[in-house]
TrEMBL record:
<feature type="transmembrane region" description="Helical">
    <location>
        <begin position="42"/>
        <end position="63"/>
    </location>
</feature>
<feature type="transmembrane region" description="Helical">
    <location>
        <begin position="357"/>
        <end position="380"/>
    </location>
</feature>
<keyword id="KW-0813">Transport</keyword>
<feature type="transmembrane region" description="Helical">
    <location>
        <begin position="99"/>
        <end position="126"/>
    </location>
</feature>
<feature type="transmembrane region" description="Helical">
    <location>
        <begin position="164"/>
        <end position="185"/>
    </location>
</feature>
<feature type="transmembrane region" description="Helical">
    <location>
        <begin position="240"/>
        <end position="259"/>
    </location>
</feature>
<feature type="transmembrane region" description="Helical">
    <location>
        <begin position="326"/>
        <end position="345"/>
    </location>
</feature>
<keyword id="KW-0812">Transmembrane</keyword>
<feature type="transmembrane region" description="Helical">
    <location>
        <begin position="206"/>
        <end position="234"/>
    </location>
</feature>
<dbReference type="InterPro" id="IPR036259">
    <property type="entry name" value="MFS_trans_sf"/>
</dbReference>
<feature type="transmembrane region" description="Helical">
    <location>
        <begin position="75"/>
        <end position="93"/>
    </location>
</feature>
<keyword id="KW-1133">Transmembrane helix</keyword>
<dbReference type="InterPro" id="IPR052983">
    <property type="entry name" value="MFS_Riboflavin_Transporter"/>
</dbReference>
<protein>
    <submittedName>
        <fullName>MFS transporter</fullName>
    </submittedName>
</protein>
<feature type="transmembrane region" description="Helical">
    <location>
        <begin position="296"/>
        <end position="314"/>
    </location>
</feature>
<dbReference type="InterPro" id="IPR011701">
    <property type="entry name" value="MFS"/>
</dbReference>
<feature type="transmembrane region" description="Helical">
    <location>
        <begin position="271"/>
        <end position="290"/>
    </location>
</feature>
Length: 384
């Protein structure tokens, strides 16, 4: 059983890396060539990715209920097949309308195969003693998705064009993810909790404290992820330096996950995550003050980056520790909807706000969101 579970985690680590690489991160590489060929603005083309993120959030509650009822094998296999076909269809789009339709399919596929679904599978098959390490293993590997697939996609686009690159990625993803999901995942065997358990959980104050915490922190992380390069350039840094420093976020997210998992063995998960979120708030507050210097910019980004992937690990751990794991995916899907909307909308609002009130005010908002998230988690721990 342990060996089989190990195979499942290894498979999920591979499919999450490939899934995030081709269904999310590759889009930024395609943005410019698509804009030129489709004769559209950057905003119009980027809106397709926003739609994909929103669709994934909207269907998350339904996907969660299916995962709890049936398990991940069939759903994730079908989702990876849909993702591969969507990438192939994407390679043939000739208008903005077609692009938006295809990216809606990518969003549906993402909800079926990425972290929310993978975490539900892990939670269903691991006890509390081994769950944290299993989740860490999946996210550590998948944390390098952007580092692997953005350069790979760029190379494919440079040599063969964006349409052929999408064909290559679609075929490759299908050949990897479909068989791994089908052969290594299993159907659901857990016993359902009493009727009304989910409704009762959704009415509890701790659940809404979790929702508020991760909605706030996810929005803050999304804003930094989208605007950091632009803001560092506005602070007077060269574009290459700004991009290099921003690239630290991916590596630091892995470091933060390792540190957080180690601390979880000694301190409550909610309090560990709260401390990390508070440090992110401090980093956002410091960036306008010290970000003009090289050392200040690197220091602030490093401090913020350590918490970049902590929410990804803390949310499933907190849900699984408090609630019946037989309904983990349902509750996770309910949380995912507002959190995903925050992820999609916050960067757009911040970008618009920066033009009116300036970047320092936006960073103050990021700081406030991180501190609010920390406060909610402290309240959650006290209510637990």
């Amino acid at each position: 059983m342990i060996a089989r579970n190990g195979q499942m985690v290894a498979a999920l680590a591979v499919t999450q890396t490939a899934g995030y690489g081709v269904l999310y991160y590759a889009f930024s590489v395609f943005l410019q060539p698509m804009r030129v060929e489709l004769r559209a603005s950057i905003t119009q083309v980027a809106g397709a990715l926003t739609l994909a993120v929103l669709v994934s959030g909207l269907v998350a509650p339904l996907v969660g209920r299916v995962l709890d009822a049936r398990g991940g094998r069939t759903l994730m296999t079908a989702g990876s097949l849909l993702g591969a076909l969507a990438l192939l269809a994407w390679s043939r789009v000739g208008s903005l309308a077609q692009l938006y339709l295809v990216l809606a399919a990518v969003g549906l596929s993402s909800a079926m195969v990425l972290y929310e679904a993978a975490f539900a599978v892990v939670v269903a098959w691991y006890d509390a003693a081994r769950r944290a390490r299993a989740l860490l293993a999946v996210t550590i590997v998948a944390g390098f998705a952007s580092s692997v697939f953005m350069p790979l996609t760029g190379l494919l686009v440079d040599r063969y064009g964006w349409r052929s690159a999408l064909v290559a990625l679609g075929v490759g993803y299908g050949l990897v993810a479909v068989p791994l999901h089908w052969l290594t995942l299993r159907d659901r065997t857990s016993v359902a909790p009493e009727p009304g358990y989910v409704r009762s959980a959704l009415r509890e104050r701790p659940f809404w404290l979790l929702a508020a915490a991760f909605l706030s922190q996810t929005g803050a992380v999304a804003v930094i992820g989208v605007l950091l390069v632009t803001y560092l350039i506005a602070l007077g840094h060269a574009p290459l330096f700004a991009a290099t420093v921003a690239g630290l976020l991916g590596v630091l997210s892995v470091t933060g996950r390792l540190v957080t998992t180690g601390l979880q063995a000694r301190r409550p998960t909610a309090l560990v995550a709260a401390a990390v979120f508070a440090l992110q708030g401090l980093a956002a507050a410091l960036l306008p003050l010290v970000g003009h210097t090289v050392a200040g910019a690197i220091g602030a980004v490093t401090l913020f980056g350590l918490g970049f992937g902590v929410g990804t690990l803390a949310r499933p751990a907190l849900l699984a520790d408090r609630y019946d794991t037989a309904v983990y995916a349902t509750l996770s899907g309910a949380l995912a909807l507002p959190i995903t909307v925050s992820k999609a909308v916050a960067p757009l609002a911040a970008a618009a706000g920066a033009q009116v009130i300036g970047y320092p005010a936006v960073m103050a908002g990021v700081c406030a969101a991180c501190l609010a998230a920390a406060s909610c988690l402290v309240g959650y721990e006290r209510a637990a």
